[in-house]
Amino acid sequence: MEPSHVLLPDERTLHGSWDRDRPPVLTVDPGTTVRFGTLDSGWWTGPHDPTDPGARRRHPLHDPAHGHALTGPVAVRGAEAGQVLSVRVDDVVPGAFGATYVGMRSTPLNERLGVTAAPTVHAWDLDPVAGVGRNQAGHTVALRPFLGVMGVPPAEPGQHSTIPPYWHGGNIDCRELVAGATLYLPVTVPGALFSIGDGHAAQGDGEVSGTAIECPMDRVDLTLDVLPDLFGAPLRTPVARTPAGWVTMGVADDLDEAMAVALDAMLDVMAALHGISRSDALGLASVVVDLRVTQVVNQVVGVHAVLPWGALR
């Protein structure tokens, strides 16, 4: 479906925090396809030169207090708190450059791994047509682009950081949210006020250095819709229908709790899909569901549960 609207990252659309009182830059009817463009997460406007860090420039709207460079927000008519925002990812096309950073900030993980030297940067040339990226050392990886941030603001007033993911989305960093996926988010505020950013050309589960291949997105086509609920019940955490299968997500202060949240949501999905009890769903999940670490670097951690297509019939 061709997009009905185009939102590019500019003075009108760019922001670096979640805020329920930020006016929407666009209001659409349910079922509308919107084409977005994004900066990379750090507000950079050009490729990184590892030999001359000062050569790279940030967007004029960047402020050191800002988090990710987000494009939006988009309001969806009729969306009310307690409903579900459906975000169908129709297309994701990265820009021509990206970067991965190591040791940019001191973390317990970096210290545990002995990565405490001067920051390291992998500067990537990206070829979206061929689907490959190459860094300055000649290493080549396959691209699998997705958005690290898709979400709606907290219901509480004020400005909120984009760094941690929330139960209603945000910096989820789930690598399964590629083209062909549909993400379901709890609606927290009237209109939903949906924003995106943090383009990743490729990322492993965990995002262990703190960054993926951070890149701008030249084109992201998303179809936005509103549902009264998901499988007849309110949604309590992000859920997605992806090319890999059904995915449920949990975020928390530790991996055990994040795992429990993701698995709890997966039992709801399995019970609804197959007409079984939660007890039976747990037994079957032990056979067919995979638990994966989404990310461990964003103040709170994430785990996602995956029910692959065809694993349970």
UniProtKB/TrEMBL annotation:
**Compositional bias segments (type: Basic and acidic residues):** 8-23, 49-66
Q: Which Gene3D superfamilies match?
A: Acetamidase/Formamidase-like domains (2.60.120.580)
Molecular function terms in GO for this entry? hydrolase activity, acting on carbon-nitrogen (but not peptide) bonds, in linear amides
**Matches recorded under SUPFAM superfamilies:** Acetamidase/Formamidase-like
Q: Which InterPro entries match?
A: FmdA_AmdA
Top-level taxon of the source organism = Bacteria
The segments labelled Disordered in the record are: 1-23, 45-66
Recorded hits in Pfam families, A to Z, give: FmdA_AmdA
User: What is the designated name of this protein?
Assistant: Acetamidase/Formamidase
Native organism is: Modestobacter italicus (strain DSM 44449 / CECT 9708 / BC 501)
